[in-house]
Design the sequence.
């Protein structure tokens, strides 16, 4: 699994201007099963996306499609989930 941290480097007004296409991008990758969860940070300095364990090059290609590349930096951390609550057992690796 990947944890992707988005950190805004542009004013929130510029972020807001790209919100609709960013949400469309999120919806596309939720629909095809790549994204598991997503949300805003509090305070609103960026966001977080949880993604399935896919090929890293494919993930990088997906992230490059996000309209927020114009307003946010991405920090990607791969997590090898070894323990999970029952509701999240599908995230565990082999």
Sequence:
């Amino acid at each position: 699994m990947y944890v992707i941290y988005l950190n805004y480097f542009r004013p929130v007004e510029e972020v807001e201007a790209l919100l609709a296409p960013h949400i469309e991008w999120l919806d596309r990758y939720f629909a095809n099963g790549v994204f598991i969860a997503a949300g805003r940070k509090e305070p609103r300095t960026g966001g977080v996306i949880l993604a399935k364990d896919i090929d890293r090059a494919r993930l990088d290609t997906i992230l490059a499609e996000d309209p927020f590349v114009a307003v946010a930096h991405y920090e990607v951390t791969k997590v090898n989930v070894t323990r999970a609550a029952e509701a999240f057992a599908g995230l565990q690796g082999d």
